[in-house]
């Protein structure tokens, strides 16, 4: 452009950048609008959301957890476990079993918990995978519940953590908050899981008469959970032992020289009450400020500079069953590559190359102890319980399949 000093390439670059930013702005909320449009029957009137089906709730939650906010959703689910470790009645039992508190078994116990949770959350309701995982989890818990080792209120509190923590983390750290439709869908999924687990809702104000919809249930559950933490989240040596063991699992693949700093950042994500209950020191101001700054910058970048994740890049947690063996493989792992197939994409991802360079663990045929062949749901859990409970689980699966209706109506 004569006389202005602005060249053609500069103008083209500015125009391209402006066009890209406009495209991001146009597409960033498109999926939210698409969900609201597809499931408009639940938002057409105040009463419509009361009839949300488990199938629709699952579909909405899957888009939220696998496409819209996969990173924050998975972090929140994992950190929900740390919240539970702050309740002495929970931590004492977990320490007594030894599975999570011993170095030799903590990694597998964490992986098995992750497998069952993801099978339940990310497999459609009523499918054999989802039903089998619920039945397996119920069977593992039943012996402790029948003996009184697991308190009913602790079961409700833990269920509440898995329902509430993803919503809280998305609200605080993601580029947008969840809509009421999305929050209700998450509530329907977890309320239904609580039903098939036989969890009592009697501590909640409407536990006897029931709730009209997931939003009502979620509100009461959050209020009750906060009060439960005030009363029961207190310091205990079992809390500390369990949290240290779990933190060591999380930091397995972090280079030794930066582990202390990484641990400080992890603890900075805990609430003050949880840190006190775990007897962890308050991280330095620069750590807390740095974490807040990084998450704030991430939020701004995602909102204004990054295109939304396309559907073909949705985060998948496990593979389909292997045709010959019927085994499933994990597509993601935190510490050791339990159940991860060496030929899978998680072996050849950017993260795997970084782990190779820094001495971390990657899927390999040379580490059979991590079972690269995969897992069968009836075998997931403590080593001494593999393959057990076949008859009990089959009976439980039959019962679970009969409980597929909407979990919200009077008396539920």
Summarize the structure.
With 412 residues, the chain is mainly alpha-helical.
Write up this protein:
- With 412 residues, the chain is an all-alpha fold.
- The protein has one domain (32-312, 390-401).
- It has 16 helices and no strands.
- α3 packs across α9 (180-196).
- It is globular, with a radius of gyration of 23 Å.
- The relative contact order is 0.14.
- The model has no long low-confidence stretch (mean pLDDT 89).
What key attributes describe this structure?
single chain; 16 helices; transmembrane helix; oxidoreductase activity
Helicity level: 55-70%
Average pLDDT across residues? 89
Please describe the biggest sheet, giving its number of strands, its sense, and whether it closes into a barrel: none
Shape: globular
SS-derived structural category: mainly alpha
Number of strands: 0
Low-confidence stretches: none
Portion of residues in beta strands equals: under 5%
Radius of gyration: 23 Å
How many helices? The count is 16
Total number of domains: 1
Q: What's the SSE pattern?
A: HHHHHHHHHHHHHHHH
Distance between the termini: 71 Å
């Amino acid at each position: 452009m004569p006389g202005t000093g602005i060249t053609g390439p500069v103008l083209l670059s500015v125009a391209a950048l402006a066009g890209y930013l406009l495209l991001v702005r146009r597409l960033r909320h498109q999926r939210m609008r698409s969900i609201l449009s597809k499931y408009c029957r639940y938002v057409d009137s105040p009463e419509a959301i009361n009839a949300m089906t488990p199938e629709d709730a699952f579909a909405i939650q899957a888009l939220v957890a696998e496409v819209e906010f996969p990173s924050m959703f998975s972090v929140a689910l994992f950190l929900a476990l740390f919240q539970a470790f702050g309740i002495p009645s929970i931590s004492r039992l977990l320490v007594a079993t030894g599975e999570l508190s011993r170095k030799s078994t903590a990694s597998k116990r964490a992986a098995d918990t992750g497998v069952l949770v993801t099978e339940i959350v990310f497999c459609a309701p009523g499918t054999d995978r989802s039903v089998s995982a619920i039945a397996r989890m119920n069977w593992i818990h039943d012996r402790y519940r029948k003996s009184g080792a697991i308190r009913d209120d602790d079961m409700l509190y833990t269920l509440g953590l898995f329902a509430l923590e993803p919503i809280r983390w998305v609200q605080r750290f993601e580029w947008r908050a969840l809509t009421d439709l999305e929050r209700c869908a998450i509530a329907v999924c977890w309320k239904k899981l609580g039903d098939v687990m036989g969890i009592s809702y009697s501590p909640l104000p409407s536990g006897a008469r029931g709730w009209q919809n997931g939003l009502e249930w979620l509100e009461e559950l959050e209020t009750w959970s906060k009060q439960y933490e005030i009363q029961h989240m207190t310091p205990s040596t079992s809390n500390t032992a369990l949290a240290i063991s779990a933190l060591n699992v999380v930091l397995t693949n972090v280079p030794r020289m930066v582990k202390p700093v990484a641990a400080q950042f992890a603890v900075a994500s805990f609430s003050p009450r949880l840190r006190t209950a775990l007897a962890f020191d308050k991280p330095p101001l620069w750590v807390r400020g740095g974490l807040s700054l990084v998450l704030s910058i991430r939020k701004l970048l995602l909102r204004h500079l990054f295109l939304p994740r396309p559907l073909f890049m949705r985060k998948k947690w496990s593979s389909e069953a292997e045709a010959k063996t019927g085994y499933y493989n994990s597509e993601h792992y935190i510490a050791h590559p339990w159940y991860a197939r060496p030929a899978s994409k998680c072996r050849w991802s950017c993260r795997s190359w970084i782990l190779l360079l820094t001495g971390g663990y990657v899927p390999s045929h040379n580490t059979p102890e991590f079972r690269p062949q995969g897992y069968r749901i009836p075998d997931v859990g403590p080593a001494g319980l593999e393959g057990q409970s076949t008859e009990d689980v089959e009976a439980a699966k039959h019962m679970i399949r009969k409980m597929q209706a909407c979990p919200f109506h009077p008396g539920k």
